[in-house]
Amino acid sequence: TAPHEFQSPPRPQPRPRMNSKDIPRTYSGLYGDGSDLLPFELSRNRNTDWMSDWWLLWTYLSIIAVGELLFLAIFPPHYSWTIGHFTHFCVTLVYLHWIKGSPNFYEQGEMNAMTLWEQLVSTPNSRYATTRRVLLIVPTLLCYFACHFSNYNIRLCVINIILWAASMLAKMSCMNGVRILGINRTCGIDDEVLKKSE
């Protein structure tokens, strides 16, 4: 070629991709297992970005403390901690483990099949490690306080331990993406997972 002719730079080799049918849990197939499959969206997920802020911890603990003071004012102390633990379990179950997706329009539906907890544990960096630890420790402390302040009443201890076990089971990494008996499944995404389990 002549020196005055324009030559375009060599085209970069495309990144090897898996077929989207082989990658579970999203419509576009960008999320899955492997080192190269975690999309950029998870590293800048606006649905979870706020959870790494310091004020979240203090707000979360303050809401629990105010709620427990309110329950102590209404119920006897041996029941109030169990009621507080049950309320915390219900709220965190719905918010962390039931509601799926992200309100962020620009992420193109990548989070549609993921709960907030699954989004937290799928984030490639460890900036949510403290948040995850707090969300694991608080139910444990609530269970302990509820059992202790009930003077280890067998009935209340069994209720509290069942609540704690269900809360911890939902947070285990082996439960990410698992929809027991198809409850809370996402149509179009979990259908293949459901067919494989049948």
Task: Describe the protein in words.
With about 200 residues, the chain is mainly α. The protein has helices at about 40-45, 45-50, 55-75, 75-95, 115-120, 130-150, 155-170, 190-195.
Quick description:
With 198 residues, the protein is mainly alpha-helical. The chain contains eight helices and no strands.
- Number of helical elements: 8
Rg: 22 Å
Structural class: mainly alpha
Report the count of strand segments: 0
Instruction: Name the average pLDDT.
Output: 77
The backbone outline, from C-alpha atoms, is elongated
Query: How large a portion of the residues is in β-strands, by DSSP E?
Result: under 5%
Kindly state the percentage of residues in helix.
40-55%
Jot down its keywords.
198 residues; mainly alpha; 8 helices; 53% helix; 0% strand
Question: Can you lay out the helices and strands and say which pair or pack?
Answer:
Blueprint: H1 40-43, H2 46-49, H3 54-74, H4 77-97, H5 116-122, H6 129-149, H7 154-171, H8 190-197
Helix pairs in contact: 3-4, 4-6, 4-7, 6-7
